[in-house]
Amino acid sequence: MSITLENVSFTYAKKTSFAKHGLNGINLNISDGEWLAVMGSTGSGKSTLLMHLNGLLRPDAGRVLLDGTDIHSTPRTLKEARQKVGFVFQYPEHQIFGNTVFEEASYGPENYGYPSDETEKRVKLALGTVGLDYNKYKDRSPHQLSGGEKRRVALAGVLASGPRIIALDEPTAGMDAIGRKMLIDTITRLNRDMGITVIWVTHEISEIATLADTLLILDRGRVAGHGPLREILADKLIEGLDLDIPLAVKIANCFRERGKVIEGHPVTLEEIEREIIRLVI
């Protein structure tokens, strides 16, 4: 399932003295099964972009197409978009409102009309997918869980509706190393094994630099760069945008500036270490 933005623009508080461009003429195609990473400084439009993908925001101009259909063309297409494009907020407390984990995770399937037995089956599968035991967690209050557990409950609530695209807004922010690894491993399985398209907004590109296929750089609501992740990270055009570029990329660029030939586009310390050893030997 592909999703396309055609010349999408959006302004917050339009027609007021506080008007501010969120997006400005965005053209973007995200292919079925792709893992797209999105970077940009604060206020660049990252979260605004995500909220357009399943109709939480409606563009002032342009269209958002899901498999070629404008998601805002009818109430039915908008409802389908919200089922097929799941959105995981940066802060799970903004998304969680159920009294129990089961109630939280079952909201989507119930809202889309699934019978109770199918809903229970979907919740069990979704919780298992994110590493939460159904019997252990189903009756617990999600508000009393740890931050990492809340993040996984929020993801399970999205998965239970059967999305084909998952958009995540800085999903590992504030998580410890163990929780971060579990979440990344879960998303990797969904992408690699189930073919689910992933749109991952991050300030920490190093954590998914070897996983994402493509990288989108936003700057003040516009596309500053878009293409294969390794190539975009190495592009001099993104310098000065206050981005967290992996150390390996910075080292590789320093070598290139000194006339050294670096093969490929290293993004991890292991990769640049191999290149340095090759140059020395």
Q: Provide the structure class.
A: alpha/beta
Shape: globular
- The Rg value, from CA coordinates, equals 20 Å
The count of β-strands is 10
Strand order of the largest sheet: 6-7-8-3-9-10
Low-confidence stretches: none
Strand residue content: 15-25%
Largest beta sheet, briefly?
6 strands, mixed
Distance between the termini: 47 Å
Mean pLDDT: 92
Helix content: 25-40%
Number of helices: 10
Order of helices and strands: EEEHEEHEHHHHEHEEEHHH
Would you kindly provide a written description of the structure presented here, covering whatever features stand out?
- This protein is of the alpha/beta class.
- It has 10 helices and 10 strands.
- The strands form 2 sheets. Strands 6-7-8-3-9-10 form a 6-stranded mixed beta sheet, with helices on both faces.
- Strand 9 and strand 10 form a beta hairpin.
- The chain is globular.
- 38% of the residues are buried.
Relevant terms:
281 residues, alpha/beta, four-stranded antiparallel beta sheet, 10 strands
Draw up the topology in text.
Blueprint: E1 3-12, E2 20-30, E3 35-39, H1 46-53, E4 61-66, E5 69-70, H2 75-84, E6 85-88, H3 101-111, H4 116-129, H5 134-137, H6 147-159, E7 165-169, H7 177-194, E8 197-201, E9 214-219, E10 222-228, H8 229-234, H9 247-257, H10 269-280
Parallel strand pairs: 3-8, 3-9, 6-7, 7-8
Antiparallel strand pairs: 1-2, 1-4, 4-5, 9-10
Brief characterization of the structure:
The chain contains 10 helices and 10 strands. The protein is α/β, with parallel strands linked by helices and 281 residues long.
